[in-house]
Amino acid sequence: MTDNFQFTLKKTDSGARLGQVSMPRGEIRTPAFMPVGTVGTVKAMYLDQVRETGADIILGNTYHLMLRPTAERVARLGGLHKLIRWEHPILTDSGGFQVMSLSGLRKLDEQGVTFKSHVDGSLHHMSPERSIEIQGLLGSDIQMQLDECVALPAEPKEIERAMEMSLRWAERCRVAFGEQPGKAMFGIVQGGDIPALRIRSAEALSQLDLKGYAIGGLAVGEPQDVMLQMLETTLPVLPLEKPRYLMGVGTPDDILKSVARGIDMFDCVMPTRSGRHGLAFTRRGKVNIRNARHAEDMRPLDEQSNCPASRDYSRAYLHHLVRSNEALGGMLLSWHNLAYYQELMQGIRKAIAEGRFADFMAETQEEWARGDLQPV
Fold first, then answer.
1. Domain boundary at 267, 300, 334, which?
2. Are residues 193 and 314 in the same domain?
3. What's the whole-number average pLDDT of the chain?
4. 267 assigned to active site
5. Are residues 216 and 262 in the same domain?
6. 13, 93, 193, 264: which one is catalytic?
7. Which of 42, 90, 116, 218 is deepest in the core (most CB within 10 A)?
8. Residues contacting residue 17 through CB under 8 Å, at least 6 positions apart
9. In this structure, are strands 112-116 and 106-109 parallel, antiparallel, or unpaired?
10. Predicted confidence (pLDDT) at residue 36 exceeds the cutoff of 90
11. Is the domain of 176 the same as that of 260?
12. Are residues 121 and 209 in the same domain?
């Protein structure tokens, strides 16, 4: 650990990067997957379990925590780390995603966003400065700039307008953040699916000399090949010595292909959300545990896994729990999915260290393609 925020790029293997973020609250091994704890909880999980799966860092969400329990209350209670019993790094999303996802409940102008609370209808104004203030009250270690995320497809003029305003907000966030030893603020590259706008955004953000850079506004409606094309366009423009974070992504296949292009950090609700709906991600591909074929299958999801949810509980039991709408079913499958994601990241890091990432990627994809075990 260190008193300052540091990123060390240890090795590259073609486009894939092996690194480490060092902060006062701990180290983040990259490529890293960050479980999403939107309102101070990774849904259906104990945080001790989340840590045991191999997670070095989790996320919180500025918009949601602003509403409940409020940033000021969290600060009075000693900060988010103390409140939720997580002593390791936390990254907070700025609320920019909610600009898109709650478009029917907000008004946007140059000064910021006014949200109508989805909880009680109250109005809350979030400027770039207020977003950074909230993240500071929460005590997060990596704070994201406020940006405008546009759903795709969208008109080029609308994408350009949002990108330019996000750049102006990035500068305001940088000033508001100031110097905070041991913490970091990341800028967010926008520009939709237009390469020239992505390049302009990345170049302008690079001039701000931030601690890290995120690629936002992807996996919001566009095909995977478009997302990957935007990464190939954007990443060469960003500083090599700074971490790159692809926001809100994604599936295991998205992660593999994005690591191959140079992404260091990921987050997504997919493993926990899918788990709560009966879908498991495994080394044999996706498994819908609701399907009748599992009803009398006493084999586990993955006998080789170190995770008890994957190794010690039968498919028959998981099937019964999910079909009966028992909470334990979602809990066990969320645990399994997060463990699988972290096992995938561990395998990725090991492969890069050994200079065999391309082989690891091909082997992993081949195993997914072979599919699940044959029914009993």
1. 267
2. no
3. 96
4. yes
5. yes
6. 93
7. 218
8. 9, 11, 30, 31, 259, 262, 264, 352
9. antiparallel
10. yes
11. yes
12. yes
Residues 6+ apart with CB under 8 A from 57: 26, 28, 32, 34, 88, 89, 90, 91, 141, 142
- Cα torsion at 60, 66, 69, 75 (round to 10°)? 80
Q: Is 207 annotated in some ligand binding site? A: no
| Average pLDDT of the residues in 151-160 | 95
Q: What is the pTM of this model?
A: 0.97
- Shared domain for 349 and 219, answered yes or no, is no
Q: Does 97 show up as a binding residue in the annotation? A: yes
| Mean pLDDT to the nearest integer, 168-175 | 98
- DSSP label of 294: G
What is the per-residue DSSP string for 167-199?
Answer: HHHHHHHHHHH---TT-EEEEEE--TT-HHHHH
Q: Could you read off the pLDDT of 269-285 as tens digits, one per residue?
A: 999 999 999 999 999 99
- Domain span at residue 347 reads 275-370
- Where is average pLDDT lowest: 14-28, 95-109, 111-125? 95-109
Tell me how far apart the alpha carbons of residues 124 and 146 are, in angstroms, rounded to a whole number: 15
37 lies in some domain: no
- Assigned domain for 36 exists: no
Q: Is residue 47 part of a domain?
A: no
Q: Does the annotation place 324 within a ligand binding site? A: no
Classified as helix, coil or strand, 59 is strand
Domain final residue pick, 267, 284, 301: 267
Q: How many domains does the chain have?
A: 2
Q: What φ, ψ does residue 56 adopt, rounded to 5°?
A: -95, -20
Does residue 120 have an active-site annotation?
no
Same domain, 220 and 316: no
**Nearest one of 86, 83, 90 to 23, comparing CA atoms:** 90
Q: Token pair for residue 32?
A: 């890293």
- Mean pLDDT for 107-127 is 92
* Residue 93 marked in a binding site: yes
pLDDT for 284 equals 97
Q: Based on C-alpha coordinates, what's the Rg of the chain?
A: 20
State the CATH number of the domain containing residue 82: 3.20.20.105
Q: Was 209 annotated as part of a binding site?
A: no
The verdict on 16 and 113 lying in the same domain is yes
Q: Which has the closest alpha carbon to 58: 215, 218, 266?
A: 266
296 and 236 in a common domain: no
Does 38 reside within a domain?
A: no
Confidence of residue 1 (pLDDT cuts 50, 70, 90): low
Write down the catalytic residue from 264, 267, 302, 372. 267
Question: Does the structure show a pLDDT above 70 at 366?
Answer: yes
